[in-house]
From TrEMBL:
This is cysteine desulfurase. The gene is iscS-1. Its EC number is 2.8.1.7. GO terms for molecular function: cysteine desulfurase activity; iron-sulfur cluster binding; metal ion binding. The keyword Metal-binding applies.
């Protein structure tokens, strides 16, 4: 059995051992409910407050702008549904892109049956929107635009500052899903022209089950959960104290090691592409070197079925993914790549390689060699 090489960090990342250590006391020693007024509750509240303050500082936000959620999906939903319902008296037109994460895309689709008019912006072959098309799409009753910071399949980085400036001049609320970008891009929420921003712990070596929505001071949302008055009445439910502690610790590690990790991921990317080209592989690189998150490499191997490729790579110990959705045992083409390219063969033969904690150039080289062997074998058998 060949040693496994995990290259699917964009899907989820291993929790850093130091993060686990930081969380442990809040499971069995300082386990109080942060809403309780006794000593155990006060200790839990202090841990939660400290985590919120640290997370805010790391991403250039105010302490009271951080809303803890159960993850990126809930944060996206809170931003979209919370804004739509809060501002529906002012308009019913909203805008997003065809390449969003499904947590955003499906939320916008759910708004259509309840009276909202949704514009889905197309992207070019780099995965980027056209600012002119966005400007043309804006209507008098446009109340919300949601465009992701960096794409989870290709890593394409949208021109968030330009988009935000355009929308700010028109008083339109702007949300960005920064789940993949946080910890890998220098983000200062106070300087970013966005009203709402989503991040998630498990993409930056933190625990699963916790995320955050950053909400600019003065922005009001309709809460999506009813119950208690936690998170300043924006998100009901007993707060996940161990998760918040782990989240802030992981974010600190991610931000302070960002430059070093980006350099490592760039090197891994270069090594893999170099081997692919030297081995004469017939590939189409769907992640551009510029304006792309450093940890994501999306490549299509022409004339190779992606489902078969993924299964064979797994047997060889190479753990990667496609950007596709598995439905009833079949793999549907990636909606992101289908939007970027007219050639269906590109979407049908693409894998996403994503680097993270523990990956080295040597591992990348070994994985690339195994990928070449598998692809050549599959082609020989067709």
């Amino acid at each position: 059995m060949k040693s496994p090489i995990y290259l699917d960090h964009a899907a989820t990342s291993p929790t850093h051992p130091d993060v686990v250590d930081a969380m442990m006391p809040y499971f069995y020693e300082q386990f109080g409910n942060p809403s309780s007024i006794h000593q155990a509750g006060r200790k839990a509240r202090k841990a939660l407050d400290d985590a919120r303050e640290q997370l805010a500082g790391l991403f250039g936000a105010r302490y009271d702008e951080v809303v803890f959620t159960s993850g990126g999906t809930e944060a996206d939903n809170l931003a979209i549904f919370g804004t739509a319902r809060q501002l529906q008296g002012e308009g019913n037109h909203v805008i997003t892109t065809v390449t969003e994460h499904h947590a955003v895309l499906h939320a916008f689709e759910a708004l259509e049956p309840v009276g909202f008019d949704v514009t889905y912006l197309d992207v070019d072959d780099k995965g980027l929107i056209d600012l002119g098309e966005l400007k043309s799409a804006i209507q008098e009753d446009t109340i919300l635009v949601s465009i992701m910071y960096g794409n989870n399949e290709t890593g394409a980085i949208q021109p968030i500052h330009e988009i935000g400036t355009l929308l700010g001049e028109r008083g339109i609320r702007f949300h960005t899903d920064a789940v993949q970008a946080a910890g890998l891009q220098p983000i200062a929420f106070s300087e970013l022209p966005v009203d709402l921003m989503t991040i998630s712990a498990h993409k930056m070596n933190g625990p699963k089950g916790i995320g955050a929505l950053f909400v600019k001071k003065g922005v009001v949302l309709d809460a999506q959960l009813t119950g208690g008055e936690q998170e300043k009445k924006r998100r009901a439910g007993t707060e996940n104290v161990p998760g918040a502690v782990g989240f802030s610790y992981a974010a600190d590690l991610a931000v302070t090691t960002r430059a070093e990790r980006s350099q490592t991921y760039d090197a891994c990317r270069f090594v893999m592409l170099d081997i692919f080209y030297k081995q004469g592989m017939d590939i189409h690189v769907n992640s551009r070197a510029q304006d792309t998150l450093p940890h994501i490499l999306n490549v299509s191997f022409k004339d190779v079925n992606v489902e078969t490729l993924l299964m064979n790579l797994d047997m060889e110990g190479v753990q990667v993914s496609s950007g596709s959705a598995c439905t009833a045992g079949s793999v549907d083409p990636s909606h992101v790549l289908s939007a970027m390219f007219d050639d269906e063969a590109i979407a049908n033969s693409a894998i996403r390689i994503s680097f993270g904690l523990g990956n080295t150039k040597e591992e990348a080289a070994t994985a690339a060699e195994r990928i070449c062997q598998v692809v050549n074998r599959l082609k020989a058998n067709t």
